[in-house]
Amino acid sequence: MKRGLLLVLLWSGISSAYASRILIPMDADHQKDHLKAYGMAYWTLSKDVKVQWLLNYRGGSFLLPDAEDIRKECTIRGVSYEVLSDDDAAGILREIGSPAENQDAVVLEKAPKIVVYSPKDNPPWDDAVTMVLTYAEIPYDVVYDEEVLADKLLMYDWLHLHHEDFTGQYGKFYRAYKMAPWYIQQKKEAEERAAKLGFDKVSDSKLAVALKIRDFVVGGGFMFAMCSATDSFDIALSAEGVDICEPMFDGDPATPNYQARIDYDRTFAFTGFTLERNPDVYEFSSIDMTAKRRMAKEVDYFTLMEFSAKWDPVPTMLCQNHTVLIKGFMGQTTSFNRGEIKSNVLILGENKANGEARYIHGVKGKGFFTFYGGHDPEDYQHRVGDPKTELELHPNSPGYRLILNNILFPAAKKKKQKT
Fold first, then answer.
1. How far apart are CA 151 and CA 212, in angstroms?
2. How confident is the model over 139-160, as pLDDT tens digits?
3. In angstroms, rounded to a whole number, what is the distance separating the alpha carbons of residues 151 and 146?
4. What is the separation of C-alpha 276 from the centre of its chain, rounded to a whole number of angstroms?
5. Residue 222, H or E segment
6. Is the pTM of this model over 0.85?
7. What are the structural domains, with CATH classification, of the chain?
């Protein structure tokens, strides 16, 4: 009896010695919940434990130290994991390190502090990012104009912007919703907030916010924007000192011939665009491809680009997925005119046949920005008043994975980018 117990204990000790790593697979066949897997990686980082992100290995898997609390947390969150021996883990890392493989292991060092720019009364399901952060159990704070202008962004590493209008034109909803109670109320609240902050117009207050966000990125921050926050942000920067708002938005005429005074050198991503002057048109400029798209929902997909994991780890991280073909989805700003994207901006995802980019990334000063077209990766044509997306029904969404790649990206130990 004693001999048998001794053998059991000995075997347990041997297993423990060799089973020293946890692999969270991110391929299509072996992960039950891709979205919560990112939350698991973030949770581990928040415990001051480093994580290795295995780029292009089984969909961008994560390698963690083996610990009982990590196993338990994976089980609680419904995240699939595999226990590896030291030898097995070393073999995977040797395979990844081979010059013949377009793979790499990137060390994630520290959980980034995350903040979302949003009105405080917005429900989490009004924004794809807050929705997926909540689902993945990744903590975040919320700021709006008051906090941004008070330099509160300096407390954070990563900032998200969603369906915001930085031009002061209230989302260009004028034609369809000018008599809707919610539109009238939101316009009133925006004007009151601008006045409280010392501005005569909403466009002036939003420009001031955009400039603070620009400074955050230039100083080393990470910015991720979706939907109308992408092009409206750049438009606001380009129109500094120029009134591009018609009288129904700000009470006075726009600057005559304002198109000629747009300064493309001020923007992050876009150049050569033409502003949409008609207030009845639900569009900011020629950047967005929504009205130019000619494809059925059934064939609306975009393709992720392939980069060298060893030479260009940043775009490789941002494109990690279990598929390279992503379902398209609409938004006020659905996609970007390729001809109006600056040459130094990387296109990460595109629909080449339609001449549009869906997912782009660039460097500004010491910081980084990523723009992702569309509103909700699992709601093809989201409309005002539509019910929220239930992410429990989409735990393996490749479109949402792109958002979460950006969440973990600031945690990576930096390597010099070659592209």
1. 8
2. 999 999 999 999 999 999 999 9
3. 9
4. 26
5. strand 222-226
6. yes
7. 2-108 (3.30.70.790), 114-411 (3.40.50.880)
